[in-house]
Amino acid sequence: MATKPVLYSYFRSSASWRVRIALSLKKIDYDYKPVHLVKDGGFQNTEEYREINPMRQVPSLVIDGHTLTQSIPIIEYLDETVADGPDLLPKDPVLRAKARALAETINSGIQPIQNLSVLNKIGETKVEWAKYWIERGFDNLEKMLEKTAGKYSVGDVVTIADLCLVPQIYNAERFKVPTSNYPNIARIGENLEKLPEFQAAHPSQQPDCPEELR
Amino acid sequence: MATKPVLYSYFRSSASWRVRIALSLKKIDYDYKPVHLVKDGGFQNTEEYREINPMRQVPSLVIDGHTLTQSIPIIEYLDETVADGPDLLPKDPVLRAKARALAETINSGIQPIQNLSVLNKIGETKVEWAKYWIERGFDNLEKMLEKTAGKYSVGDVVTIADLCLVPQIYNAERFKVPTSNYPNIARIGENLEKLPEFQAAHPSQQPDCPEELR
C-alpha cells in the first residue's frame, strides 16, 4: 500500500464503526478524519465533503487511490483485497449468504429507519419511533440468529454480521430497548465486546469522542 | 441443480423485482410463489411464512436446498454460484465496490425509508414522506452516477446497481418524483428497460399482478 488509508468517520456513526472494526481486524493502519454530523448543520452537508461522499454520509475510505463509500461495500472490498487478518465473510457460498443477510437485516432493515436524518424529520416522537423499529428489527433478527448463531452471529467465527450487530446494540441501548429480551443478540454482543479489535473500534476510543462520553 | 428454485415474491416489491432480474439474467428457471403483502394483513406476517423468512419480507429464494433472504445477498450468491449468464458484479475490486455502493445507496439509503411498513406507520402524510426521501436519495445518487455511469450505472455493462435502480425508478414514478430532473438516472433507466431480461422481471409480467395493472 503506497499511502496510508484515510477514514472519514464520526465516532458514534454505526456505519463508520462497522468499518473501523473491519480495519482493526484486518490490521490496517489509517488516518482518522472526523466528520461532525451535528455541529454547524453537519460537515457532511458541506460542498467540500460532498465531493468526497455525494451521499453526505460517513464513512468514506480513501484507499489504494480510490474513495470508497457505504460500509458494506467497503467491508467487502477489504475482505477481497487485504490478505492480512481473518476473513470477514465465510468462504462457503451459503454461509456467506447467511452472514450477508444478517448484515443487511441491520444495514437496510433497521439502521436506515432510525438514523439521524430520519429522526430529525420525525421530530418530537423520535424516541418512540426509533424504539419501535429497533424492537421490530431485533425481534426478526433474533429469530434469524436462532438458526445461524454459535458463539457469534454465524457459527463460531466473526463475520460481517457481527460488525453490524455491535453498533446496532449500542443504538438499541441509547433508545432504551431492553436487549435482555433477545438472548442470542445479548449473548453474541457480550462475546464480541471482549475482542480487542472491537474494543479499539468503540466510539469511546475515537479522537472525536467528547470527554464526557469517554 | 437437483430441484427447481422457488421464489417467494410480490409483483410490486422492489427487492423481489431485483432478484427476478438476477434470475432472468442468469437464465434460471424457477417456480413463482406469490406472497400478498397487503391482503388479510399480509401473508408475510403469518407464522407459516415467518418460518421461511423471519424478517417477514419478500423475497425468499429456495435454492440448492437452502432458503436465502435479503435481495443483495441473494444476488451475490447467484453471482458466486451460477456460471450461466453475465456477471452481476464487475471482476475488478474497485468497480465491484462502486457497483455495490450504488446498490446500497438504493437498498439501504432510499428504499427502506419508503417501504410499505414505514409508510403505513407514517399514515396520512405518507405520499409527501416518500417523495421527500426519494428526491433526496435521487439527488445523491445522480451525483454518484456522474462519476461512474456509462450506458448503465457502472460503465457499459449491467451490474447489481442496475438491478436496484429500475425498481426504484418505478417507485419514484408512483410517488410523482419527476425522474427527468435526474438525467443520468433517467437515461440509464431507459437503456435498461429495453433489455428483455428486465422486461420479463417487470411487475406487470408477474402471475400475481392484478389485471388492471397489466
Automatic annotation (TrEMBL), chains A, B:
It comes from Dimorphilus gyrociliatus. Its cofactor is glutathione. This is DgyrCDS11645. NCBIfam families: maiA. Pathway: Amino-acid degradation; L-phenylalanine degradation; acetoacetate and fumarate from L-phenylalanine: step 5/6. One of its GO terms (molecular function) is glutathione transferase activity. PANTHER family: MALEYLACETOACETATE ISOMERASE. It is found in: Cytoplasm. Pfam families: GST_C_3, GST_N_2. InterPro entries: Glutathione-S-Trfase_C-like, Glutathione-S-Trfase_C_sf, Glutathione_S-Trfase, Glutathione_S-Trfase_N, GST_C, GST_Zeta, GST_Zeta_C, GST_Zeta_N. It catalyses: 4-maleylacetoacetate = 4-fumarylacetoacetate; RX + glutathione = an S-substituted glutathione + a halide anion + H(+). Residues 92-211 form the GST C-terminal domain. One of its GO terms (cellular component) is mitochondrion. Residues 3-86 form the GST N-terminal domain. Belongs to the GST superfamily. Zeta family. The keyword Transferase applies. Its main location: cytoplasm.
